[in-house]
Amino acid sequence: MVRLITQLTAKEEEMFRNMVRRLNTLVSTAKQLDVRLMIDAEQSYFQPAISRITLEMMRKYNREKAVVFNTYQCYLREVFNEVTTDLEQAKRQNFYFGAKLVRGAYMEQERARAVALNYPDPINETYEKTSEMYHRVLTECLRRIKETKDNSEDKRIAIMVASHNEDTIRFAIKKMSEIGILPEDKVICFGQLLGMCDYITFPLGQARYSAFKYIPYGPVQEVLPYLSRRAQENKSVLQKIEKEKRLLRLELWRRLKRGQLFYKPKG
């Protein structure tokens, strides 16, 4: 490996090499086990390095299918340009492109830092603007998927719609239907946190869409702050929990009235 960043100390360079080695081990194992590895996003001031490394992993391992996915935070003003640039790189260098689309989890930190260091706020002005950006990015990805499908090319783009927003899920399904992308094409999948929005995840699975539950795993002292950050950055989480509790109460009452307390699926 050629030393490109002379500002790194010998110790830092060793740490970087170790990180790349460990990441190669993780990705090669994921490829052997035929599972996907989605690399999460962080604050915008860290993200260029993370994305650069992730794209390098894609270039190396996504030769036959999308194994490695990069995460794109749609509350960032520049995310559309980043996604289209990365899509073009994947096309030019002939590797499969994997993207997990999220709204973003560091809004308060990002804005506070922008004010403290006197640079433009990188975050969209409103939640509605972020939703528009999410839908714009998703539409562009779906458009490119349709292009490859119309040209009878291999499915070289895979998208994870990681969202608890019902409007976004409906938007994705509607767009898929409009352009002829079927659930069984397996190029679009959906994901929600375990314990949240089951009323979204389960119907998706029943309708034959690929639906996943995200399980935070690790030491309690690390996992709890992670979950609290998401609740802090996304106040609508609490509203969704209230809705889910209401739906659960209604379902319990329905089953009690019908004598169907224990659900026994057929088959």
From TrEMBL:
Catalytic activity: L-proline + a quinone = (S)-1-pyrroline-5-carboxylate + a quinol + H(+)
A Gene Ontology molecular function term of the record: FAD binding
GO cellular component annotations of the record: mitochondrion
A Gene Ontology biological process term: L-proline catabolic process to L-glutamate
Name of the featured protein: Proline dehydrogenase
Glycosyltransferase is among the record's keywords: no
Family recorded in the similarity comment: Belongs to the proline oxidase family.
Cofactor(s) in the UniProt record: FAD
Organism field: Cuerna arida
Transmembrane intervals: none
Keywords, alphabetical: FAD, Flavoprotein, Oxidoreductase, Proline metabolism
A Pfam family it matches: Pro_dh
EC number: 1.5.5.2
Domain Proline dehydrogenase as annotated: residue spans: 15-241
Keyword Ligase: no
Family annotation (InterPro entries): FAD-linked_oxidoreductase-like, Proline_DH_dom, Proline_oxidase
